[in-house]
Amino acid sequence: MEQCGITSSKTVLVFLNLIFWAAAGILSYVGAYVFITYDDYDHFFEDVYTLIPAVIIIAVGTLLFIIGLIGCCATIRESRCGLAAFVIILLLVFITEVGGVVLGYIYRAKVEDEVDHSIWKVYNGYNGTNPDAASRAIDYVQRQLRCCGIHNYSDWENTVWFKQTKNNSVPLSCCKAAFSNCTGSLTRPMDLYSEGCEALVVKKLQEIMMYVIWAALAFAAIQLLGMLCACVVLCRRSRDPAYELLITGGTYA
C-alpha cells in the first residue's frame, strides 16, 4: 500500500511539472496583458509601482518553466539532491507569489485614490484639435468604456478645451455608437454617454489587478500540491532507497 502511495506521488509530481510548464505560459500572458492594458490607462494612474504585481507574475512564470524542467528530471531520475532543490525553489516561488498577491490587494485598494488624484488634470489638459498622448487616452477610454466626462458629460464644461472651442460641444468620443450623426452638442444630451468615466476606469483597473491576484492564488495552490508530493517522494527516498522506480519499474539501490 505504501509502495502504491509513493508511485502515485511520483506520477502526480510529473503531471504537476507538466502543468508548471503550462502555467509558465499562462502567467506570462496575464502579466503581459496587465502591461498592455495599463498602457491604455496610464495617464489616469500615475503610480508605476502598481505594475510590481505584474512584474512578479512574469518572473514567476519564467521560473515555473525552469522549475518544471528540474522537477521532471529529478522525479524521473529519483535524484535526492534534485528533489530537495525542487522543493526549496518551489517554496521560494510560492513565497514570491504570496507577496505578489499581497501587493495586488494593496495596490487594488489604492486605485480609486490614484485615479481621483489624476483624472481631472488629464481631462483639463485635453486638446481636441491637436491630440497628444493624454488626449488620445481620453478618447480611447470614452469610446472603450462608453462614458463621457469624469462624473458625467457636464464635466466637460469646466475644461480649458470646452471654453476655448466655444461651440457648446463635447468630444465626439462621447457620442453613442448608435447615433452616426452625433456632433457632441450638449443640446442633444440623448446622443451622449451619460455615465462618467472615473468610476469605470477604477473598476477596469481593479479588474486587471484581480486577474493577477487570482492567477497567483490558483498556481500557488498547485505549487503547494507539488511541494507535498515532492516531500513524500523525498522522505521515502531517504528512509528506504530500495523502492520502485517510476521509469523502469525496478528497484533503486
TrEMBL record:
This is Tetraspanin. Keywords: Glycoprotein, Membrane, Transmembrane, Transmembrane helix. GO terms for cellular component: plasma membrane. SUPFAM superfamilies: Tetraspanin (SSF48652). The keyword Membrane applies. It is a multi-pass membrane protein. Interacts with claudin-11/CLDN11 and integrins. It is found in: Membrane. Gene3D superfamilies: Tetraspanin (1.10.1450.10). CDD domains: TM4SF8_like_LEL. It holds the Pfam family Tetraspanin. Regulates the proliferation and migration of oligodendrocytes, a process essential for normal myelination and repair. It comes from Nyctibius bracteatus (Rufous potoo). The keyword Glycoprotein applies. The gene is Tspan3_0. Belongs to the tetraspanin (TM4SF) family. The chain crosses the membrane at residues 12-36, 48-71, 83-107, 208-235.
